[in-house]
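Ticket closed. Logging final result for Sporulation/spore germination protein.
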Amino acid sequence: MFLRKTRPLALILIVVLVMMLGVTGCGTSNLQTQATATPTPNETNAVANSSSANNTPTPNSTTAQATPVTLYFPTPDASGLVAVEKTVNVSNGEVIKAMFNEFNNPPTGLERVLPKGTELLDASIKDGVATLNLSKEFKSNFEGGGTGEQMILYSIVNSLTTLPNVQSVQFLLNGEKTIAILGEMDTSGPLKRDESLITKQ
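Final structure:
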């Protein structure tokens, strides 16, 4: 009689224990999944450091580098252009800007290139064409005639086409193309190098 009463009770206890073990196992499984999905602080820092490293500019992009260039300056009588070797400090790869800074520092016996007050507003190179956006002073302060115009434009063109990725130069005045930026020569399209203007001093 006592055995018959305890058997159903024992079965109930076994079922309850099995159910409790099942619930505990599921909870452990969920905790393990969450632990695997959540990165540790060290992993988070590693990812952050990696992103920062990728976004940090390289030293070469900000450090000025001494770069040899060839610039052409007009002779005093505007009979031709003389090649002058110079070393310029180039920052952020802006070699055209560095060259422009030297156009008004001619060697003794040669003429400055740019009209007074001329500023290089922007410069870019694409498909072999260097596009120069010059300030209004490039035109308004120009004092020469046709020969002086030729000397100025080709001092710039012949200088920039010494760069390996430049074959021609497009002039803009305050961001706009003009048919004749200095009055006579056609500057509606890019100008190519003119070797015939190069002379020896």
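Confidence is low (pLDDT under 50) at residues 1-5, 23-37, 41-61. No further action required.
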